[in-house]
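Appendix B.2, paired examples.
Example (i):
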Amino acid sequence: MRIATWNVNSVNARLPTVLEWLEAASPDVACLQEIKCVDEKFPREAFESLGYNVETHGQKSYNGVALLSKYPLSDIRRGLPGVDASGFEAEFEQARYIEALIEAPRPVRVGGLYLPNGNPVGTPKFDYKLAWFDRLHAHARDLLALEEAFTLCGDYNVIPEPRDADKPETWAGDALFQPESRAALRALKFLGLSDAGELGNQPDGTYTFWDYQAGAWQRDHGIRIDFHLLSPQAADRFRGIVTHRDARDMEKPSDHVPVVVELED
């Protein structure tokens, strides 16, 4: 089973590109982030024509996540459970998480997420990023108690280590590279989750995002911020990972590229 995660940066603006990649790569499951549309405006029929079942958790103009699967979907969740201790939910609740059980012969649960960016540091946006991380941590702990194969995949908006950026010094003041952000990601892994990129021994310089500005793509000034975090049961089934760098060179590309994990059927 091949599971993709991809921040598409507006599904309607880049629909031909997204469909072209899906048709060529043909993942069994795809988690999309930043669809930037309400559920009713998601181009469902275009994906169904490729054989996918479609579930969305949309939001007008911003954020939004979708889950595509060639297998039936069940136990669907939209949004993380709970209200964080700081009371951010009422003011900042955003469409950033979708989850379902993929009813394959060997089922796997997939959670697709778009973690808050958090910039500028020192503002409520950074506080919200950390509070959202806390809720994700609590949910991951609950999922681990089920002892199921699952991946929490998506755009984490965190640069884990200096080696995950071409020029780490330029990110020193950014929310993606703050000690608190990196510690929150480590805390998730310390629960018992495995970074598929590390399991697959992907080399330094395997980036997943290049900004549209200042020739970042042409100069390879990239960062790695899109991950699959696997439960122990999923890690036991891990067979490989591919970062589809070539997607950044497609016509009207997203600033992110797909990352595909393969699990044993």
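Example (ii):
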Amino acid sequence: MTSDFQPLPGLPGTLDLLQVSRNDAVVHVRLNRPAKRNAISDALVQQLHTCFVNLPEGVRAVVLSGEGAHFCAGLDLAELVERDIGSAVLHSRMWHAAFDAIQFGRVPVVAVLHGAVVGGGLELATSCHLRVAEDSAYFGLPEGQRGIFVGGGGSARIPRLMGVARMTDLMLTGRVYDADEGLQVGLVQYRVRDGEGLARGIALAQRIATNAPMSNFAVMHALPRIADQAQSEGLFTESLMAAVAESTPDAQDRLRAFLDGRAGKVVKS
């Protein structure tokens, strides 16, 4: 457990495949199957869903990481054997529900990535809003070599970050990107040395937590949908969301503080 973070009481704190702790407005969720390289079992994906739909009031951001040497080595393949078509569809939809609860949940999520970020692990990472990669992080989609296809939302999320052609390459050839390549193609936004990812992720989450909640909500929920719309529909959606955000009491207070000289201007850090 990270310094200053305490175990989270209530339902999320009872989940045995996750370590869930809190420091003020930030919750840290850590995948806790290190002996399996944090491979995602049915139980783990269900616990992720439960955790993210039951975040307590007052939480403004989440950091997601993995215990042990890896973030997540993907789907626990032992659970795919002898699954029929109907149950396979429902299994995929279970993953979709869990990862939608992250991407379109209550608060922004920062993923801290180290070691393996492959298959379902990459699908999980791309459901988060920001991604920090340590030196050791590597990225791959080995589904093609396993005789399967992505089922956790990767075909919808990953091309939006790196493009269809690059994702096709990973799946057809088994190519693996290192952390620098992941940054270059847009899979991650931040690069740090080994051992520094969690501190950076927490710092980003703490900064995000100071934003107006409705502004964060707009970025999480409106921005990706606008990007999927035709320009005229997107601009109209933007107008509606801008009107909602700027008319909240929080926004009005922040605007007055800026006009009164009580809020800092944008500077390069």
